[in-house]
Amino acid sequence: MVVLRKVSDALTVTMDGLLARLLSRHAAGRPIDRAEIAALRRLTFALSPAFLAIPAGLTLLFGAATGLPIGFALATALYLLAAVALVAGRRLGAAGAEAKVPPHAGIAADPYEFCPGLFLTVDAGGIVRSAGGRDRQMFLSFLREPLARPFVEQVHVSDRLAFVQALDELRLGADVVVTDLRLDRPVIGLDQAQFLNVRLDMTAVRADDGTLLAVRAQMLDIEGEMRMRDAVARKEEEANAAHEIKSRFLAAVSHEMRTPLNAILGFSDILAGEYFGKLENDRQREYVQLIRQSGAHLLSVVNTMLDMSKIEAGRYELLLEGFDLADTLTECERMLSLQAQTKGVKLTSRLPRGLGEITADSRALRQIVINLVCNAIKFTETGGAVIIDAIRTGNEVTISVSDTGIGIAPEKMALIGRPFIQVQNDLNRNHEGSGLGLSLVKGLTALHGGTFRIESRPGEGTVVMVTLPVDGSGARAADETNMVEFPPRLAEAGAGRKTGGKAPGHDQAEAKIA
């Protein structure tokens, strides 16, 4: 039965296609009527025995040489006359009916004819009772004679349960149910897919007592949307794969570079200390010191890249502990005082009493402060000042580092905090660095559940503020997934920028430019 049904469906689709092409040549611009095609199909099946009976009868009377051609000609003429009479009668009847009906009556009779998609009326049992809509010709050419048949037969086997559940929800009281389904194509062509993806928006029609009488369903083609979903999914997989490869590359390269760099630093320290003999002149001592400084700078960059790759991959583990905040900030100030003094910059701190303890990762907090102070010293000219401030408000502490340096132009604010981006981001820049400092600060701050804010005015200076929870609660919440947005951003590119160069932030901390 299944094979016979498929053969019948294939024969019906083929015949409908031939009849549609034939009628389109003589339609004079009018749309093809599916009812005409169905009527011609029934006429063809009804007169098909005549193509055998008439030639056979004439063959018995006049012989095969004369009876066969005359019989086929008579049968063909009879079929053509009947087809012309059928189509002409239907069109004349339709024209007469249209002449009697006012122009606006058709619009009032079926408003769904002007709505996109296919509109179906389905009874409470799921049987299709009527079909309409602007795109009904396209959908009906795809469906297998849907009228007076259960609609579930048109749905792919895997999606039939979804349709039945949607219909059951309407019976239980839901007013509207929307579901995405795949329809089975009855006959698959060379350039056709097996399924048609559609969205079925079903609305319940109820009696006065709330009983479900029927369902009005609008069917829309979502093939384009499904292709977009597939493309987005593929692009997301490609981006994730590239992201993972990049993270592994950074981690591997960082680990491989640290071993020779440590050897360079160790041997340069031995040479500088002259443990195995005196150096001959001051130029050799100067070169050894330059090797030491260059190796230390490169090692700091490698360590920063390694920390960034850990944050990006969600593998950076915070070791929370309680420690005195003022002591930590003072220690950072002492560590960088020589660097500031060498450049002629005054480094001071203004720490109020009663800052107390903070629960955080002490190494990460030192890294945050050191990066901010190093940046401030680097972009502050000789004679300028860099100030470390801290204030405790409730359960939060705000650490700010202000300077009187070159400042940041408003158009550059949206780029600050992204990896390998500097204020002077060209080959002729005057300040060395990889552009990783603020990016690492933002990542470590986010891991602690804190917020980051920056204000700057070109030629006057910059203030960077980091706000952290005192009790470490933000870090414990972030540790559940240990993932932060990376690369961190202060603002979306193209966002509105203020003249003062103030980047949007989440806290209300304020600090004055020294």
TrEMBL record:
Q: Which residues form a coiled coil?
A: none
The molecular function GO annotations come to:
protein histidine kinase activity
SMART domains referenced in this protein's UniProt entry, alphabetically: HATPase_c, HisKA
Question: What's the catalysed reaction?
Answer: ATP + protein L-histidine = ADP + protein N-phospho-L-histidine
Q: Which UniProt keywords apply?
A: Kinase, Membrane, Phosphoprotein, Transferase, Transmembrane, Transmembrane helix, Two-component regulatory system
Write out the ranges of the annotated region (Disordered).
Answer: 492-514
Where does the record place the Histidine kinase domain?
252-472
Looking up CDD domains in the UniProt record yields: HATPase_EvgS-ArcB-TorS-like, HisKA
Question: Which Pfam families does the protein's record reference?
Answer: HATPase_c, HisKA
Lipoprotein recorded as keyword: no
Protein EC: 2.7.13.3
Name of the protein this chain belongs to: histidine kinase
Species the sequence originates in = Peteryoungia aggregata LMG 23059
